[in-house]
Amino acid sequence: MIRLFASDLDGTLLNEHHECDEKIEKGIQKIIDAGKIFTVATGRGVKMVNLKKAGDISYYICLNGAAVLDPKKQLLHCEPIDKEVLSKIMDVFEDLNLEYVSWNKVYSRIDKESVLRYRKNVWKEAANDSWLDRFLNNIIVNFECLQSKEEILQKDICKINYHFSDDTDTSRLDDFLKQYDDKLVNAPSGDGIYEITKNGVNKASAVSWLADFLNISKEEVAVYGDGGNDIMMLSSFKHSYTPSTGSIEAKEAASQIIGPYEDYSVIEHILNTIEEDKKR
Length: 280
Fold this sequence. Notes:
Layout: E1 4-7, H1 9-13, H2 22-33, E2 37-41, E3 59-62, E4 67-69, E5 75-78, H3 83-92, E6 99-101, E7 106-107, H4 112-123, H5 129-140, E8 143-144, H6 149-153, E9 159-163, H7 171-179, E10 184-186, E11 193-198, H8 203-213, E12 221-224, H9 231-236, E13 239-243, H10 248-253, E14 256-258, H11 265-279
Parallel strand pairs: 1-2, 1-12, 2-3, 7-8, 12-13, 13-14
Antiparallel strand pairs: 3-4, 4-5, 6-7, 6-9, 9-11, 10-11
Keywords: Hydrolase
GO cellular component, one term: cytosol
Protein name: Cof-like hydrolase
């Protein structure tokens, strides 16, 4: 019997507009009403997760597993990047628009206008202008910009994001990550982004931590994901599912492929699982 359900957001739980709509919101409420526990498992920071009213009854695994929060959005567990390595990154890559992410804030060494301009230029081919403007305006409120190296080092930085376009030469960053592969890991959710965390941090380890915290066995956990940062999670649990729209790697890692995410396959599969468990 499944007691804990963990799901990625974009390309998995959320609709085709990357949003939680009424069907998803009500579905999460039904999960909780059935006495089960639901957590998101996302690369996003907690302030970028909007489950509407369902957000008050869900747990949060954020930043690819580097932060775990309770339904009141209180921090339960955090895995920050080693500050010595962090300092080295800021020295070596001062020329890159890196984003330094704590469990509840994003820090940048450039000004807000430059952040918006850079993000829009990188993503201009990936989304329509109206959606992109709305999305960027929502995320920029979580930024603290023009931060010095010293100010950033005072924070517990859990994740480093780097967004880049197709023609960007990323070999220097790749070489650095190879040199420090005992300290850092990159698990991008898709193309055009680096998502760097402490080595050993991933969604699988965070789901396992939360399950232990809640006294739930591994066999009582079901996980859902579709992308590169979900592979470890999908391969680590017996009950693992990916939408048919997921990546090739996700399909290989999951125990079962379900319907396309835009057809609400994840929330429906969870609710069907609960109903099947009742019959046992």
